[in-house]
Amino acid sequence: MKKKVAGVNKTQKVKTHLLKNKVITSWEAIKLYKATRLSAIIHNLRKDGLDISTQTVAKIDENGHNCNYAKYIFIK
């Protein structure tokens, strides 16, 4: 039986998502693919040659607190 390398499937799912939709956030990655370490996945995809930029988004949450999160954008 082959041993599955952890994270490969999630990395491929995030890559496919970026190629199709051009944008992903941590919350989308968690909800859609159960990928809780999106920044690590993005780091690996960049090492593999994908051009991905990071945009910091500032938002006020439902409790009135300031929140910042990253939006990853596939360039080419």
Which features would summarize this protein structure in a list?
3-stranded antiparallel β-sheet, 42% helix, 3 helices, globular, 76 residues, Arc Repressor Mutant, subunit A, alpha+beta, 28% strand
Question: Could you characterize the architecture of this molecule?
Answer:
This protein has 76 residues and is of the alpha+beta class. The protein has three helices and three strands. It has a three-stranded antiparallel sheet with strand order 1-3-2. β2 and β3 form a beta hairpin. The protein is globular. The mean pLDDT is 91.
Amino- and carboxy-terminal Cα gap: 37 Å
Q: Which residues form runs of ≥5 with pLDDT under 50?
A: none
> Roughly what fraction of the amino acids lie in strands?
25-35%
Structural class: alpha+beta
Count of helical regions: 3
Largest sheet: number of strands, sense, barrel closure:
3 strands, antiparallel
Over the alpha carbons, how many angstroms does the gyration radius reach? 14 Å
Please, what is the average pLDDT?
Answer: 91
As laid out across the biggest beta sheet, the strand order is 1-3-2
Helix fraction, binned, reads 40-55%
Record field, number of beta strands: 3
**Tally of individual domains:** 1
What is the fold named in CATH at topology level? Answer: Arc Repressor Mutant, subunit A
Considering the protein shown, what is the CATH homologous superfamily?
Winged helix-like DNA-binding domain superfamily/Winged helix DNA-binding domain
* Shape annotation: globular
Going by CATH, the architecture would be Orthogonal Bundle
SSE string, helices as H and strands as E: HEHHEE
Query: What's the CATH C level?
Result: Mainly Alpha
